[in-house]
């Protein structure tokens, strides 16, 4: 399973905590992330994350493009609903791509936990 991990700045601590809690599971999969999120997950959760561009510089679009080509199977995108983002069109494009291609996309911690628990229970592998 190829999993994309993305978090806005105010949600990055939540992402690190989530990824740390599920680190043994996430290690069994191929991980990709936007630049800053990915580097924090490497440094603080010890996870092997391929880091693309930072979100505002096109990272969301890179993940969306991979997803459209079938190279991303699950997205955890912890969005900050309280802060305006300069690259809002890119964010919408990524979430839309998930809907177009029927790729599971969790946009908050509660949903992400359910997806990851399901992944753990079903034993899907990379
Ligand atoms: O902005 C983002 C998603 O829209 C996340 O990008 P970073 O992980 O580079 O902060």
UniProtKB/TrEMBL annotation:
CDD domains xrefs: MGS
Protein family: Belongs to the methylglyoxal synthase family.
All residue ranges annotated as the MGS-like domain in the record: 1-126
Pfam families per UniProt: MGS
Binding, substrate: 8, 12, 34-37, 54-55, 87
UniProt cross-references to SMART domains, sorted A to Z: MGS (SM00851)
Catalyzed reaction equations: dihydroxyacetone phosphate = methylglyoxal + phosphate
Gene3D superfamilies to which the protein is assigned, alphabetical: Methylglyoxal synthase-like domain
Organism in which the protein naturally occurs: Hydrogenophaga electricum
E.C. numbers: 4.2.3.3
Active site positions: 60
Keyword Methyltransferase on entry: no
Assigned keywords, A-Z: Lyase
Function: Catalyzes the formation of methylglyoxal from dihydroxyacetone phosphate.
Protein name (Swiss-Prot/TrEMBL): Methylglyoxal synthase
């Amino acid at each position: 399973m190829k999993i994309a991990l993305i978090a806005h700045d105010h949600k990055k601590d939540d992402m690190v905590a989530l990824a740390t809690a599920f680190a043994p599971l996430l290690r069994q999969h191929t991980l990709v992330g936007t630049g800053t999120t990915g580097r924090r997950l490497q440094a603080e959760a010890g996870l092997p994350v391929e880091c693309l561009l930072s979100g505002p510089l096109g990272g969301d679009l890179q993940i969306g493009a991979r997803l459209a080509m079938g190279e991303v199977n699950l997205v955890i995108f912890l969005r900050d609903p309280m802060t305006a983002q300069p690259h809002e069109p890119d964010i919408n494009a990524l979430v839309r791509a998930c809907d177009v291609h029927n790729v599971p996309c969790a946009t908050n911690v509660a949903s992400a936990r359910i997806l990851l628990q399901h992944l753990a229970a079903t034993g899907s592998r990379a």
